[in-house]
Amino acid sequence: MLWPLAGLLAIVLATLAVGWVVDQVLQRVAAARPDAPLWPLLRRCRVPLQLVLLTGLLIAVRPLEQLFGLADDTARHVLLLVLIAALGWLTVRAVAAVLGAVLTRYETVTEDASRVQRVHTQLGLLRRVLSALVWVVTVATILLTFSAMRSLGASLLASAGIIGIVAGIAAQSTLGNFFAGLQIAFSDTVRIGDTVVVDGQQGTVEEITLSYLVLRLWDLRRLVVPVSYFVSKPFENWTRRDPGLLAWVLLHLDHTAPVEELRTVLYERLAAGELWDGKEWHLEVVDTTPSTVVVRAAMTARTPDDTAALRFEVREHLIAHLRDRHPGALPRVRTTGPG
Asked: Which domain holds residue 294?
């Protein structure tokens, strides 16, 4: 009894020591190469690596059978299942680390925000696809370790055609969303961080999965939309090519409104603020009615959020200027004739 216990303790200590050594090596390499983001991310593989090493040593040394009186076949089978699951876990963590390093490296060498968003979306969906494939293979491998599953292989293979047809019909919408997610990732129609309008709802793309897309609305609500919507119905993407937008404000004023002065006031306000990107601006009379003129002030901003804030700011400032300096220029209801 003493030797199996000593062997088990030695295996546990060896596993902890190897994990600590690997973690220390990764820390030193990461410190020596701060421009390589892979090494810090690989540290997340420490726990599954220790589990793989632990189960492998337990299978090789076999202290559990002697210590607890377990049957050799039962103990080895349980440890084999744990080993397969740990290998799947380690593979998923390694794939996530590699793809995360690729994204981080791309962000450091690319200044184009739209391209970074596109790669972020593509790598995120690719990670989910690869993780799903790894877990499917892991579960299939675990099932094949049972003799009953191997004996049923012939009958399952014979009925695979019928089952495939039934499953395809039952999961038609799921499969449609899956392929729609892949199409979105690699067709660059919508990316994480884009501002889109879906059924009149404006929001920022916060998350994209293989089945749904999450929009963060202006009031912090989350709108969850199936990804198949974005390949089957029209929607507005305000930031697909350029995140900058044209903000505009319409004012209904009296015919006596000082339009030229308003142009000067608008430019001074834009130049003094931080929301205007300095590219375009104008103020024009775009329409008239028997009682008012319609003045449109337009200016560009860097992002959709800046665009909305700039519209509110300019509208408030122009109205306040007219109220304080030219109250007669605001629209009013005339009750008497000119004479």
From this structure: 245-329
